[in-house]
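Hey,
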Amino acid sequence: MGERQVPPLLAPSDTDLLATYHASRSPEVFGELVARYGSWVLRVCRRRLGRIQDAEDATQAVFLALARHPERVQYSLAGWLCRAAHRAVRDLQRSAGRRARREEAAAFMRRPAHPSLETYDEVTLALSRLPTRLRQAVALRYLEGLDQREAARRLGCPQGTLATRTREGLHRLRLLVAR
């Protein structure tokens, strides 16, 4: 008599896997979720970002969000992952834009090794034409070299407000010096 063959078990549904992961935080269960959807999420991110490295970062952010908060998935795991991928892509794009603007501002504010007296006078004059709130923010950040937290504390405003004032001040300063 041969051994009795056990029929293969049906794979658990996404809902079952998610409930199990939510209850146990089991790495094996989470690994199964990643195995099911990882390459799909990566393709969604890559289509919108282009660069594979950026798509991998966005995909990692999606699965990190799922690992931390599986309870946020209300109906469809695939639908949640798609929305989370779009949010991660958007956040990555915004972050890259902010970084590019900061780098541009830093490059603009770098002084030449031996600035001419004329250049110094132009920048000083342009800085004096800025409204006080913008001039103070730019001066504290770039002339005194304070970090954002310390400059905000000195001006008695939130860091976000200081960042906005600094960005606007640099923009207006560029326009004034360019004239």
